[in-house]
TrEMBL record:
Signal peptide: none annotated. This is Iron-sulfur cluster biosynthesis transcriptional regulator SufR. The gene is sufR. InterPro entries: ArsR-like_HTH (IPR011991), SUF_FeS_clus_asmb_SufR_cyano (IPR014075), WH-like_DNA-bd_sf (IPR036388), WH_DNA-bd_sf (IPR036390). SUPFAM superfamilies: Winged helix' DNA-binding domain. Pfam families: HTH_24 (PF13412).
């Protein structure tokens, strides 16, 4: 089947579903200020192209409501530049030197990444540093955003990543996600970092709670 290039509105819908995880046709129509009929045509096209799926939810006595979300193919439309080569390389490396050595290579890689991030994030106020970290992650295809949390006791943020640029690697080698958590802790040594969401557990984003010590 030949997949047509999504229109701007279709791409907007895909990005919204990537970010929010799911939405109804009515919610999408309101979000993009287009008619419900036009929204359903876009959704039908995206479903035909295999980019989205839906599940039906019964609300009361009325017709079932369709909840739309990205398919695996839909997620693949977003940056994951490292996946194909990196996964093939790691599989070959595992066959050659063994799983233990591969885990060591991955650990070394994230140590280098943490060093690079630390240099680029620099010093300054926590908000300045986490904002710079989000910019770095976004430039690498993670579709990251910073969500402030109101707390009178200390400074808190959620670093949310709505797309994983290395999702294929993370599925096959989940230890990279643990190294990622360690990496953020190195880059922000005056903070505690906790994972709040994880795509590998079926959630629609990865999330990290950043809390000033």
């Amino acid at each position: 089947m030949t997949t047509t290039q999504p229109t701007s509105t279709k791409q907007d819908i895909l990005q919204h579903l990537l970010k929010k995880g799911q939405a109804t046709a009515h919610q999408l129509a309101d979000r993009f200020e287009i008619s419900p009929q036009a929204t359903r045509r876009h959704l039908k096209d995206l479903e035909t192209e295999g980019l989205i799926e839906y599940r039906s939810v019964q609300n009361g006595m009325g017709r079932p409501q369709h909840i739309y979300y990205l398919s695996r193919q839909g997620r693949s439309q977003f940056p994951n530049n490292y996946d194909e080569f990196a996964l093939s390389f790691l599989d070959t490396l595992a066959q050659t030197v063994g799983e233990k050595q591969v885990k060591e290579v991955l650990r070394k890689q994230w140590e280098r990444k943490a060093e690079d991030y630390t240099k680029q994030v620099g010093n300054g106020l926590l908000l300045e540093r986490v904002t710079r970290l989000v910019e770095l992650r976004r430039s690498e295809g993670y579709m990251a955003e910073l969500l402030p949390i109101e707390d009178n006791q200390c400074e808190k943020y959620i670093l949310a990543e709505h797309n994983c640029a290395i999702s294929g690697v993370a599925e096959s080698y989940p230890s990279v996600c643990g190294h990622e958590l360690e990496m953020f802790s190195v880059v922000l040594p005056d903070c505690t970092i906790e994972r709040t969401h994880w795509m590998n557990h079926g959630e629609h984003r990865c999330g990290y709670l950043i809390k000033a010590k």
